[in-house]
Design a protein that fits this description.
The structure holds two protein chains of two kinds.
Chain A lengths: L1 H20 L1 E7 L3 E9 L20 E10 L3 E2 L2 E2 L2 H19 L5 E6 L5 E10 L7 H9 L10 E13 L2 E4 L9 E12 H13 L3 E7 H9 L2 H6 L1 E6 L4 E7 L2 E8 L3 H12 L3 H11 L6 H5 L1 E3 L7 H4 L2 E3 H25 L9 E5 L8 H8 L4 E3 L18 H11 L20 H11 L1
Parallel strand pairs in A: 1-6, 6-11, 12-17, 17-18
Antiparallel strand pairs in A: 1-2, 2-3, 4-5, 7-10, 8-9, 8-10, 12-13, 13-14, 15-16
Chain B lengths: L38 H10 L2 H24 L2 H19 L5 E2 L1 E5 L3 H10 L6 E2 L5 H9 L4 E8 L4 E8 L4 E5 L2 E5 L5 E5 L10 E3 L7 H10 L7 E7 L3 E6 L4 E3 L5 H15 L6 E5 L7 E4 L1 H11 L25
Parallel strand pairs in B: 2-5, 6-9, 9-10, 12-13
Antiparallel strand pairs in B: 1-3, 4-5, 6-7, 7-8, 10-11, 11-12, 13-14
The chains are: A alpha+beta, B alpha/beta.
Chain lengths: 444, 332
Amino acid sequence: MSDLYQVQRSMRAMRRAALQRGLIAVLDIGTSKIACLVLRFDGPGQFRATDGVGPMAGQSNFRVIGAATTRSRGVRFGEIETVSETERAIRTAVQAAQKLAGERVDHVIACFSGGRPSSYGLAGEIALPAGRVAEQDVARVLAACDAPDFGRSREVLHAQPVNFAVDHRSGLADPRDLMGNRMAVDMHVLTADGLSLGALAQCIRRCDLELAGVASSAYVSGLASLVEDEQELGAACIDLGGGATGVSVFIKKHMIFADAVRLGGNQITSDIAQGLRVSQAVAERLKTLNGGIEATGRDDREMIELGGETGDWETDRRTVSRADLIGIMRPRVEEILERVAEVLHAAGFEHMPSQQIVLTGGGAQIPGLDGLAARMLGPNVRIGRPLRIQGLAHQLTDPCFASAVGLALFAAHPQDEWWDFEMPADRYPARSLKRAYRWFRNNW
Amino acid sequence: MQGLTPRFFDGDGSARPAPIRAGARPAPRPPRRDPAPSRLAYRLHRMWLTPLYRRLLRVGLPAFIIAMVAGLWLSDPDRRASLTAQVDGVIEQVQTRDAFMVKAMRIDGASDTVDRAMRAMLPVTLPASSFDLDLDMLRARVLRLDAVKSVELRIMPDGVLSAVVVEREPAALWRHAQGIELIDETGHRVNSVESREARPDLPMLAGAGADAAAAEAMALIDAAGPILPRLRGLERMGERRWDVALDRGQRIMLPAEGALAALERALAMHRDTGLLDRDVAALDLRDPQRTAIRLGLDAQNAIRGARGEGLLGPDGQPLPEDTNTTGKKPAA
């Protein structure tokens, strides 16, 4: 994991440099849209407590100065399939956001939902010879986690220490300077397909931008949509995207599980297109304007003009009732939610103390979804909107921008990851000058 | 899904009329425009957003073009000459407007001599533009005239250069090695005169440095009330102190410090004893502790006669014995 450590460290250094410059862009690469926000970091202190704005979770020290969104191209199931097409879409979004901001951005933090994320819970334990937890003991215990074989070409996206335990005391957030003989750690590792990550890096490099961080879309939309209590007590965030549905489970302000279902709003659209024999564009319009989950008797009488541009008058003048549309959409939504329920079951969500479920993403705007989800997933269901951040236009506060907003929060206030701690000296390559320096520093 | 299959027949079974079509099939729509910028446009836009390039293009380039065009145009000497001629013409045109012209000069409070001198000093011939008149310079030149104490120069709205002159009032005559001059009460030279008779009404000062102490001399003359008819003048001795010269060759020698008080003391002595009416050659008040009196020749001879000593001649040497003295015995 040494070169991963180096890669993540270099990305972290780039992120620090960007924050020092005060300008960073976040890029949400989704299946249906690509959103780009340009963030200006003014530093804390622009609000006072008398303004009614506290320090919050670090989201008060930046503001959005440019935002743009564009139709995504070349992305399927949240994975980049055609690099040149996606690069053009990224260029469109980045250029529009730059134009709005009036500034040139060089550093980008990206998130994506594909790559078949899989999460692992790792545990490590070490003895404390000094009887007290020192700085490098934290790094040692993190390095002592025995990593399973993640599989071929899998890359680690997040590796967050979730829980520290010293002797019998568990649930520690910061174990430093505590007395004890043994220290244990639980670490949550999220891996994704390295080829998808490589394609993402390639796209961003071809846009003359530096990749300053990669995050999982499920994780960042959880950051944006879950309120603080939900993150503390336990909640699942379900991000209903276009090509993939991300599921992330949070407890004690840490993500402990993330997965993605490779189904999303695009499947609903193609169901409508096939069922009603209309084009994808018409199906998308029908879904967004007239779609629904629960059919009532009134929906039988509400006739919808299909429209279309086939050139055949008869075909273009067809009408269907809204109940028909709902009849097409509902089975697919049920299927998605069933798969989500399976994922939640696999994660052991039913053993969590609080089983709040927050639906977000573009698919969460289907009317009646919360009722269906409450029947299928659990009683505590709400539709989550992303946290309000300063400077974001009103039309960008929809649930579909949850991951973009979450990525901005992630940039402003990143959680500790494994590579944020010093690497223990014996992990450095042999004959390294740095290793000798660390050895001297630790032993004298 | 009753709406999905198009209904070709109405309820009564009759065929519906075919829809009216304007032409054949509608023209296929052009493919949707791709909003993505080309890579070149993207890079240029990013370059444009870079502050250095932006400043260079928005400030540097126009400034460079303007400077280059101006430089090329001005590189021809004929064009430069015509440009300067045009600029000068415009400036001339504005300056010679009627509103800016000075047509006459009015001098108030000056004597004929000063008037003539001032008119000669004017650097331009009237009428002239007021832009050509440097009033500060003119004022400095006028003030260099000794007879002028102050001058106020002003260009009046009707094109008249008004000069209000205050001349110096001569307060005394000063005789020195080069001749006789009139000076005012501060000691400044006013004019030269040929002889004392030109201004018999003014007191006379003499000696080097008398002009510098003219104020003190004026105070002394003011204080010399009772002996004013006898006053011949004041003489500056060694640029340090005053001698009051009276007629009959009498002198009151005043100290350098406190001359006025010393003169008042002498006048008090004169009032009490009539000292100065007697044959006293000089009253020496230079030492305030000790007043000395130098007697006149007659008085000395009277004393010497009374003592049976030989008489003195006008040069102060004892006369030969055969000389018959008829010296009048001075009053005690």
